[in-house]
Write a structure and sequence with these properties.
This protein is an all-beta fold. The chain has strands at about 5-10, 25-30, 30-35, 40-50, 55-60, 70, 75-80, 85-90, 105-115. The chain is about 0% helix and about 40% strand. The radius of gyration is 19 Å and the shape is globular.
Amino acid sequence: MLRVQVQRVLPNAVLPVYAHGSDACFDLTAATVETTTDFVYIDTGLAFAIPDGYVGLVFARSSVTKTALTLANSVGVIDASYRGTVQLRFRFANQSHFPIYNVGDRCGQMLIIPRPVVEFDVVDVLNTTARGDGGFGSTGQ
């Protein structure tokens, strides 16, 4: 089990919880919601001390499909050195702008996983594979 320090920066911040014991991610709850014409800014009011060697990945919850929102950066990356609050920025997915998340709604989810340290070997030619350089749609629909 990994132990992570969490700080309530905003008084109404809700501590993260796993909805089910087998869930990969814990839920994040909106402490503040600010809406502009283009975005919805949500602050969870929580700051985490993610241990060195780990990274936090922030995703939209599946409930986002019931809103008019999409997570603006697809996946948020929370580095171990970051000590600010975890925030999410959503873009409007359609012209209606409704419904959106409100204060107190579970609005995102976060996974804390080990961060690999990658070393790169520069080569003149990569080894070949059956797929090769086939990109978007190369394996069919």
